[in-house]
Amino acid sequence: MKPTLFTVFVHAHLYIFFIFKNNFFFLVEKVLDIQRCDLNIKSNSSSHHTELYGEERLIVRRGQPFSIVLHLSPSKLDGCIYVSAGPLPRRESDTKVTFSLQESTVDTEWSASASKDASGGTITVSISSSPKAPIGEYTLTLDQLGQKTSLGKFTLLFNAWCPQDAVYMQSEEKRKEYVLAQHGLVYRGNFKRIKEKPWNFGQFEPGILDICLKILDDSPKFVPDADKDISSRNNPVYVTRVLSAMINSNDDRGVLVGEWADFSGGNHPSLWMGSGEILRQWAESGPVRYGQCWVFAAVACTVSRALGIPCRVVTNFGSAHDTDANLVIERLYDENGDRISGDDSIWNFHVWVDSWMTRPDLGTEFDGWQTSDPTPQETSEGVFCCGPASLHAVKEGEVAMKYDTPFIFAEVRFLDLVRLSNGKFVKFSESTKSVGNFISTKAERHDITHQYKYPEGSKEERQVYEKAQKRNKLLQTGEKPGLHLKIKLAKNMIVGSNFEVYAVLTNNFLDARTCNLLFFARAISYNGKLGDSCGFSSENLEVPSGEERRLSLKLEYNRYGTAIDPDMMIQVSAITIDKQTIDFHKAEKIIVLDEPDVGIKLLGEARVNQPVTAQLTLLNSLPEPLLNCSFAIEGIGLTDGKPIKLLLLEVPHQPIRQEAKASIDFKPTITGSSVLLVNFDSDKLKNIKSFIDVVVKE
Asked: Exposure pattern of 105-138 as b/e (b: 16+ CB <10 Å)?
């Protein structure tokens, strides 16, 4: 959108004004001879915690003063400031505000003050924006009776350091982590085998902030009513909801295309190492192929932090997906243990973001972390977006609180049901435990002995005593009465190896039990979609009281190797069926196969503007060769904002398992601490990641 110019003449006085997103008008009594304007970028950036954006432009945070220096003559400055926002600013929508030049600025609204130096050759103008001002780009121009002089541009962001700002965080440590940190870990796998994956958020990389602002301008909310949209950008709740819709491309030309099956024509989601490359591709050519939940969330985190909103990436292990809005995830099985439903699903993990802000629309008890989910799953108000929903509302079951609290509430609650032949339903024992994990006496005396025990020596007393002995034995081991089914995994389960897993059935009833035990394994994707079978075993077992029986299942690479996808997950399920007592039990575990380690070694010290070599290795753990192998490295301030990739030849496996080796040179451009991410890819071992810390010296 081209800037729209607004002029105001008051008694033919001089005025300074801003155009485009927000316009300021300074009224002064004389025409000033401006020699130059110093935006004090270095000093302002330091006090506004924006120095990581670089010194090429002025970037400040709202609700906090910044200063510019006018080198001019004469030196008297007096008058008013007019503030307007957008192409059609109106006082009714708070996109046009007027305030006077004062002796000092105030921290609750737009204000300005001026002071001169002893020589009278310069005037320092201190400008404080309102802590509720819309974020965005500003252009500062001096207009002297029609003679216009450009003084420069600046960008206004949310301010987690300002107590009056809706995104204020009291803890400096948390501000550093959730606003300033450019590197982080995204967690995947399952709650028993959590895998950490490094990610470059890179919100301060060159050009990224402009792209984040472009995302807001490209939103469908901007086009029909730009004034309303820009005015609403003062509210982090509004901005977060816009980002939730714009990070995916389902309803617009948003950033990422989601894909969970066919990845032709784009990158597999696991190939990405950071947000920067994705955002740059989107700015150049539109929606980027492809993303899945952790990519959507990581990019949303980058954009939120770039705009000044404290944000964290959150992984929910065992994440339910409610398709019928009944707050319960229902998976139906028949009496033989075969799955017969449908639409509701359990993702092995799902990743979203939490953003920190107040919720004046809900009440102070709902302030704090707000969940939003940019992965396109279900529509909200006709658009593929989700949130922000208050974590307090989710925890307390306040599902009437906006936005999309019922969907997020259901993501951590779940129920497995068995449909019997008579049409009735029974519940699998303890089925709800697989979802929402880790996200981490009478005053008057009389004899009442008969209420406590049978008469001594009676048959009933002896039976009770024997029963109590058995029960006490169970209590000593911490077990509850009933049948208990669990799955025991092997210790070392690296991809390429063969290993055994066991279904263990324990009978804590007082009598023997006979039931059919089914034990099967299938490949599974992170979103819960089941793949091909990897193994099956079954047996009709009689289990005496107080004892256990085991059923083994051998998982061999020659069978699971062709079934698993790059997530390298196998779901093992055990089901016991006792049709006489209508007793069903289910145990389920997700095996996350271990990956071979990527070795990283720097040959020499990393120094700014000097090439340094990263030596990379990976041991082929498979009993077959790897084809189409490559290493790629990426680091903020290390690889010029994009990955450096090196293709390799075939990596054999005979006579012993061989190593893939590569040496890649890179030239750091910024001193200080950074992180070097490494990705190994091949036809069978895909997107194996690792990282090391790098300290770049002068």
From this structure: beeebbbbbbebeeeeebbbbbbbbbbbbbbbbb
Handedness of CA 88, 90, 92, 93 (dihedral sign): positive
Q: How far is Cα 623 from Cα 182, in angstroms, rounded to an integer? A: 38
What confidence category does residue 153 fall into, taking pLDDT thresholds of 50, 70 and 90?
confident
CA torsion through residues 233, 237, 238, 242, sign: positive
Q: How far apart are CA 592 and CA 590, in angstroms?
A: 6
pTM value is 0.83
Per DSSP, what are the bridge partners of residue 345? 321
Segment (H or E) for 462: helix 459-476
Digit-coded pLDDT (tens) for 645-698? 999 877 776 656 789 999 999 999 999 999 999 999 999 999 999 999 999 999
Write b or e for each residue in 245-261: b if 16 or more Cβ atoms lie within 10 A of its Cβ, otherwise e: bbbbbbebebbbbbbee
The string of DSSP letters for 432-458 reads: GGGSSB------S----GGGT-PPTT-
Marked catalytic residue, from 373, 404, 567, 681: 373
**Domain spans of the chain?**
34-157, 172-468, 483-592, 598-696
132 contacts 85 by C-beta, under 8 angstroms: no
Q: How many CB atoms lie within 10 A of CB 653?
A: 16
What is the helix (H) or strand (E) element at residue 406, kind and residue range? helix 405-410
Q: Is 350 a catalytic residue?
A: yes
301 part of the active site: no
Q: Coil, strand or helix: which one is 210?
A: helix
CATH 2.60.40.10 at 483-592, yes or no = yes
CATH 2.60.40.10 corresponds to the domain 598-696: yes
**203-208: long-range contacts, CB 8 A cutoff, minimum separation 24:** 203/275, 203/302, 203/303, 203/305, 203/306, 204/52, 204/53, 204/54, 204/306, 204/636, 205/276, 205/636, 205/641, 206/54, 206/56, 206/641, 207/280, 207/283, 207/641, 208/275, 208/276, 208/279, 208/302, 208/306
- Given a contact cutoff of 8 angstroms between Cβ atoms, the answer to whether 208 and 328 are in contact is no
List the catalytic residue out of 13, 48, 183, 350: 350
Calpha distance 135→213 (Å, rounded): 9
Structure tokens at 441: 């006496």
Instruction: Compare 147 and 614 and report the one with higher pLDDT.
Output: 614
340: amino acid identity, one letter: I
Q: Classify the C-alpha dihedral 305-311-317-320 as positive or negative.
A: negative
Tokens at 39, concatenated: 């935006």
Q: Is the dihedral of CA 78, 38, 214, 371 positive or negative?
A: negative
> Burial of 468 by CB count in 10 Å (0-12 exposed, 13-18 middle, 19+ buried)?
exposed
How many whole angstroms separate alpha carbon 599 and alpha carbon 614?
10
Q: In the CATH scheme, what is the homologous superfamily, with its name and number, of domain 34-157?
A: Immunoglobulins (2.60.40.10)
Domains 34-157 and 483-592 share a fold: yes
- Please give the class, per CATH, of domain 172-468: alpha beta
Please give the angle made by the CA atoms of 421, 426 and 429, to the nearest 5 degrees. 135
CA-based R_g, the chain, Å: 32
Instruction: Indicate the pairing of strand 688-697 with strand 606-607.
Output: parallel
pLDDT attached to residue 438: 53
Active site residue 293: yes
Among 212, 293, 385, 629, the active-site one is 293
Around Cβ 330, how many Cβ atoms within 10 Å?
18
Query: Cα–Cα distance between 593 and 564 in angstroms, integer?
Result: 10
